[in-house]
Design goal:
There is one protein chain. The protein has a ten-stranded mixed sheet, sandwiched between helices. A four-stranded mixed sheet has the order 3-2-6-7. Helix content is 37%, strand content 24%. The longest helix is centred in the middle third of the chain and has 17 residues. The chain is an alpha/beta fold. Helix 2 links the parallel strand 4 and strand 5. It starts with a strand and ends with a strand. The site of adenosine-5'-diphosphate has 18 residues, from helix 8 and helix 9.
């Protein structure tokens, strides 16, 4: 079983408007409300791949119940910790080819809830093969919270894929708790090393050779339309992908994480893992819906992706 962790999930609300008018009333006909958050996107793609998974994290209030019902309707197993605070809404207003987002910060996690979740996750990890950790930390949790979860997994010999950015990621890299995989995009990698990183192989290889990444088995840098660049132990790979028409690239990184998790769970070659991860990212970008892939096109796409050792 793959354990997917979403510490700050949301109800994603999308409003479609011809035009957004400020300082007046906007009435909206086309509305969608779905369980959201990066870890839940990972869960949806894993479910579409028919992987055995369990979604966990913090949920509270009526919006927490709404998310649980949504996951059940999608046939996704879940075991979240109930908290006193209210799960958040995140609103995206799609208007005249633009997207305006209003993102709530989310509930505050108490110290007691934070401790309780470590026990909860530890029990779930016993039955898991690997764990994915996605997204930002909600208010109340210390920046080393992901490092604590990774320590629990390390103690049980379980693999971890970490997809977060900023101080939470830096804290993990500086700690002794090492994830199996991190998956920054180019902007996140640049933020991490404190300077802009170019997308060419020589620059990426030089950056990933830094001591900061020592002890992490896989570093997979996703490069949007330019594919990806990866380091696995002492091997470096460039992933080249074909040009394609993109509908909505939001959530492509989460589909990539699902591909990495599914590949690690069944133990495939480096080339196969990188191709699968990119194919799923691309399939997500070809869909309107975030965290959804059309698998009918998977095998054909796999043949068009090239992995070259650098
Ligand atoms: P994130 O969503 O984390 O920022 P990326 O945008 O790099 O991650 O996307 C993850 C993967 O999805 C890429 O490595 C690539 O395989 C695929 N992808 C994303 N955007 C595009 C695009 N515009 N064209 C083709 N593939 C894309």
């Amino acid at each position: 079983m793959i354990l997917t962790v979403t510490l700050n999930p949301a109800v994603d609300i999308a409003y479609q408007l011809e035009e957004l008018e400020l300082d007046t009333v906007n009435r909206v006909q086309a509305v969608s409300k779905t369980p959201g958050g990066k870890g839940l996107n990972v869960s949806r793609v894993l479910s579409e791949l028919d992987c055995d998974l369990l979604a966990t994290g913090f949920l509270g209030g009526s919006l927490g119940s709404f998310i649980q019902e949504g996951l059940e309707a999608a046939g996704i197993k879940h075991d979240f910790l109930a908290i006193a605070g209210q799960t958040r809404n995140c609103i995206a207003i799609l208007h005249a080819k633009q997207q305006t987002e209003i993102l709530e910060a989310g509930p505050n996690i108490s110290e007691q809830e934070a401790q309780q979740f470590l026990k909860h996750a530890s029990a779930l990890l016993e039955q898991a093969e690997l764990m994915t950790l996605s997204g930002s930390l909600p208010a109340g949790l210390p920046t080393n919270y992901y490092a604590k979860l990774i320590s629990l997994a390390n103690a049980l010999g379980k693999q971890v894929i970490l997809d977060c950015s900023g101080p939470a990621l830096l804290e993990v890299l500086r700690s002794s708790a090492k994830p199996t995989v991190i998956k920054p995009n180019l902007a996140e990698l640049s933020q991490l090393v404190g300077q802009p990183v170019l997308a060419d192989s020589a620059s990426l290889k030089a950056v990933l050779s830094q001591e900061l990444f020592a002890g992490i088995d896989w570093v997979i840098v996703t490069l949007g339309a330019q594919g990806a660049f990866a380091k696995h132990a002492d091997n470096y790979y460039r992933v080249e992908i074909p040009k394609m028409t993109v509908l909505n690239p939001v959530g492509s990184g989460d589909a990539t994480v699902a591909g990495i998790a599914a590949s690690l769970a069944c133990g495939v070659s480096d080339h196969e893992l990188l191709k699968t991860a990119n194919a799923l990212g691309m399939l997500n970008a070809q869909e309107k819906r975030t965290g959804h892939v059309e698998l009918a096109n998977f095998a054909q796409l796999m043949r068009t992706i090239q992995v070259k050792e650098v």
